[in-house]
Amino acid sequence: MSTHQNDRLRALIEPLAVGAGLDLEEVRVTQAGRRRQLQVVVDADGGVGLDTVAELSREIGQALDDADAMGGAPYVLEVGSPGVDRPLTEPRHWRRAAGRLVKAQLAAGGELVARVLEADDEGVLVEVQPVKGRGRPAERRLEYAEVAKARVQVEFGRKDAKDEDAGAAAGAPDDEHDEHDEYDEQDDEQDVDASDEGDESKEEA
């Protein structure tokens, strides 16, 4: 996707996300077979509910059609929240990762695995995990400037791993024939269909 198209899509979508009380994290267009796929990732404190995703998807789909932002070729719209292994690039990402285990590569070299305790606009307080289980965890303050990149680690079997960390996806009408599609989001196996004739949400066991 060109920078110009990305900027145009963000300018169109971001006010809708903000109006729903969400942060627009990512807008990405990829080719999916004969169709294009527009993926919109949003987030909020406390996670993003499935009903919110479905409503925002409908609003985005309508705005795209009204502005002819995707052109005449068919496309698939997916709106969802970040996955559990999200990268941490903004202070709000660290704040929302409180209690999570992260792996950080340091700007000065080396890396550490630590659990996020609390975060503010300048940095984060973490509990550094002992190497190979030796010793006790130790608290450490990290300024964001000290971190080259960081990502939340998936912890299988962790009791407080919430389903809301998984991305919920929603589809929107994508061509002149008013077709609608069903999309699977592997993280939480919840799907939402949206069509001009009505909207229905369902959960799969």
Beta-sheet strand percentage? 25-35%
Write down the Rg. 19 Å
Q: What is the count of helical runs?
A: 3
Q: Which outline best applies?
A: elongated
The average pLDDT score comes to: 80
User: SSE order in H/E notation?
Assistant: HEEHEHEEEEEEE
In the sheet with the most strands, the strands line up as 7-6-5-4-8
Q: What's the number of extended β-strand segments? A: 10
Q: Residue share in helices? A: 10-25%
**Largest sheet at a glance?**
5 strands, antiparallel
Low-confidence stretches: 160-205
Measured distance between first and last alpha carbons: 35 Å
Q: What this model shows, in words?
A:
This protein is of the alpha+beta class and 205 residues long. The chain is built from 3 helices and 10 strands; from the N terminus they run αββαβαβββββββ. Strands 7-6-5-4-8 form a 5-stranded antiparallel β-sheet. A 3-stranded mixed β-sheet has the order 1-2-3. Strands 9-10 form a two-stranded antiparallel sheet. The longest helix has 18 residues, at 50-67.
Primary descriptors:
single chain, 205 residues, alpha+beta, 5-stranded antiparallel beta sheet, 3-stranded mixed beta sheet, 10 strands, 20% helix, elongated, disordered C terminus
SSE diagram, text form:
Elements (H helix, E strand, L loop, with lengths): L2 H17 L3 E10 L2 E9 L6 H18 L7 E6 L10 H6 L4 E6 L4 E9 L3 E6 L9 E6 L3 E6 L37 E6 L2 E6 L2
Parallel strand pairs: 2-3
Antiparallel strand pairs: 1-2, 4-5, 4-8, 5-6, 6-7, 9-10
Helix pairs in contact: 1-2
